[in-house]
């Protein structure tokens, strides 16, 4: 079945959903995106994702021609049009069509498109046995360049880091900041557990302020688990009792080996498993109905 794509206010067939070669999203990576999950008829943390989108837009001086409510509604409309119950939304806003040349002021209006589709997750065995991760030599950009908070269409840094990880035979790669502190993985936030306490780097160390990361803070609060933001090095991960990664697509997934060092006993730990279970329940019991 052909997918229906939301494009600038209309639902169009996938084959008709086209973007100009003069769109600055394509020419310069000038644009932003969000990845959102829906489960059993409800979109998880929709408003939070769209709020983050608007913050990215603000940082890039990209004037959104739609209100926050309109963008939320467009997501729901797109899911309904594709008759899906579970899946993934990819929402992209580009600077729009302009002339050649960087100048964004020559692009009169941004474009937005929304894809709703099924999702392929990591195979089940990785949730049960955990992931092996390697550290990449590609660093997260410093906030002195584009802030890592902006979910922009320029993901080459992360793509190149992902290539490094894949070439090393790992599914994910750990990225450090310019100072050598742990920032995050190529598409996930990172956590460690030591003596029952959960730690994650502050976003000022170069990670995206993940919606799933925020959900872990909420879950720790609900379950009475202490959680703290703290700068960390690879040593802290090598010597942790447990570690796990979080992201909208991957949800919560244990990391059991980093750079050939087993984390803890090399198996998903009890705190990670508790949070994975609680996360699975939360995403299926909250959210915006469609
Ligand atoms: N860090 C980065 C750099 C990300 O891009 C996360 C962490 C996790 O954030 P959330 O809010 O999802 O908990 C992300 C998430 C995709 C895709 O194909 C999306 C992301 C990463 C990789 C691929 O939609 N974003």
List the helices and strands and how they pair.
Layout: E1 4-7, E2 10-13, H1 24-28, E3 31-39, E4 42-43, H2 46-59, H3 68-81, E5 87-94, E6 111-117, H4 124-129, E7 131-135, H5 156-167, E8 172-176, E9 182-185, E10 189-194, E11 197-200, H6 211-223, E12 227-229, H7 234-238, E13 242-247, E14 251-258, E15 261-262, H8 270-283, E16 288-289
Parallel strand pairs: 7-8, 7-14, 11-12
Antiparallel strand pairs: 1-2, 1-6, 3-4, 3-5, 4-16, 5-6, 8-9, 10-11, 10-13, 13-14, 14-15
Helix pairs in contact: 2-3
The structure holds 3-[O-phosphonopyridoxyl]--amino-benzoic acid.
**Helical region count?**
8
Uncertain regions: pLDDT < 50 for 5+ in a row?
none
Q: Give a count of the beta strands, DSSP E runs of length 2 or more.
A: 16
| Main sheet attributes: strand count, strand direction, barrel closure | 9 strands, mixed
What is the count of structural domains? 2
Distance between the termini: 21 Å
Global morphology: globular
- Which molecules are bound in this entry? 3-[O-phosphonopyridoxyl]--amino-benzoic acid
Query: What structural class do helix, strand and pairing data support?
Result: alpha+beta
The CATH topology of the largest domain turns out to be D-amino Acid Aminotransferase, Chain A, domain 2
**Beta-strand fraction estimate:** 25-35%
By CATH, the superfamily of the largest domain comes out as: D-amino Acid Aminotransferase, subunit A, domain 2
Which CATH architecture of the largest domain would you pick?
A: Alpha-Beta Barrel
What's the mean pLDDT score? 96
Radius of gyration, in angstroms, nearest whole number: 19 Å
Name of the CATH first level of the largest domain: Alpha Beta
Instruction: Give the topology string: H per helix, E per strand.
Output: EEHEEHHEEHEHEEEEHEHEEEHE
Helix content percent band: 25-40%
């Amino acid at each position: 079945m052909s997918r229906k794509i939301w494009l600038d206010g209309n639902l169009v067939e996938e084959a008709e959903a086209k973007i100009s070669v003069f769109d600055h999203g394509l020419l310069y990576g000038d644009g932003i995106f969000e990845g959102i999950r829906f489960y059993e008829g409800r979109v998880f943390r929709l408003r939070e994702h769209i709020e983050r989108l608007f913050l990215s837009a603000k940082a890039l001086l990209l004037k959104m021609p739609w209100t926050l409510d309109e963008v939320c509604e467009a997501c729901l409309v797109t899911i309904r049009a594709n008759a899906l119950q579970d899946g993934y939304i990819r929402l992209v806003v580009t600077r729009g069509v302009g002339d050649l040349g960087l100048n964004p002021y020559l692009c009169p209006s941004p474009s937005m498109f929304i894809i709703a589709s099924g999702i392929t997750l990591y195979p089940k065995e990785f949730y049960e046995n955990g992931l092996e991760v390697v550290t990449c030599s590609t660093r997260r950009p410093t906030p002195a360049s584009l802030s890592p908070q902006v979910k922009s269409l320029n993901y080459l840094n992360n793509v190149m880091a992902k290539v490094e990880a894949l070439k090393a035979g790992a599914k994910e790669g750990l990225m450090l900041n310019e100072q050598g502190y742990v920032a995050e993985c190529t598409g996930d936030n990172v956590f460690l557990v030591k003596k029952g306490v959960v730690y994650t780097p502050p976003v000022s160390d170069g990670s995206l302020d993940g919606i799933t990361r925020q959900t872990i803070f909420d879950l720790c609060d609900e379950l009475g688990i202490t959680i703290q933001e703290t700068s960390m090095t690879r040593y802290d991960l090598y010597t942790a009792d447990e570690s796990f990664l979080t992201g909208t697509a991957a949800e919560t997934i244990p990391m059991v080996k980093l750079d050939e060092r087993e984390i803890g006993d090399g198996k998903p730990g009890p705190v990670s498993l508790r949070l994975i279970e609680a996360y699975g329940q939360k995403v299926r019991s909250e959210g915006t109905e469609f």
